[in-house]
Amino acid sequence: MTNLIKAEIYKYSKRPFTYIATLLLCIGTFLVTALVAGKFSGIAFYTREKFLSLTFTYFPLILILMMVFCPVISEEYKEGTFKNLCASNISKSKIFFSRFIVQIILAVVIATMCMIVFLLSVNMIITGDSYSSEMLKGFTFRFIASTPIFLGGITIVNLLVILIKKEAIVCVIYYIIMQIRILTFILEKLLWNKFGVIREFLLSTQLEIVGDMNSTTPEIIKAVLIGLVYTVVLTIITAIIFNKQDIK
Q1: How far apart are CA 122 and CA 34, in angstroms?
Q2: What residue intervals traverse the membrane (predicted)?
């Protein structure tokens, strides 16, 4: 399986899109921080501590962007390379898990690059009276703690790809799934308050908990564990379905 992983990483290392996407995300991170710092308008919108607390409210958007890792598996169906690999007597489990590991590697590399840019550029923002270096450390810790939740998003994407195989349809359905939280809120208010229980176990809700500067350690641990459960359970289910599929 190591060779499969190396081959896949080499393939993406030769694609300009990989570098362009990472560069655009890093530039976007820098520009947003510079805008908040008032580098363009001359007026700072937030103090550093306020900006750090608000940044996590946008993390559900990053969760939606997990669909960008869809092609790692979906293009194998489109190009017919899964069929060639299976014909080479390579087990389906090794094929699937090698792709999943590559997704994780790509996600970690891109996230690390963006985080480095963010931590450097956030120094442009003025500090308020309540700011301390511990806030930045806490932000970094919470970002790292959110990793299993983002991986849970990737596993949902993978399950949809294995079932549907069409990138465009997968992206639409995944986006709809990410909006279930809004739907459960409406149903809770209009029909039955027990619908709120569903919302408590959604990935977007776990991101909100991890990102809340007032959340306790047990709450963060619970959110991380839920993200891990999503990742492990959905990966196992997807691997089983993939192993039983006829690759055409």
Answers
A1: 8
A2: 20-45, 51-73, 100-127, 139-161, 168-187, 220-242
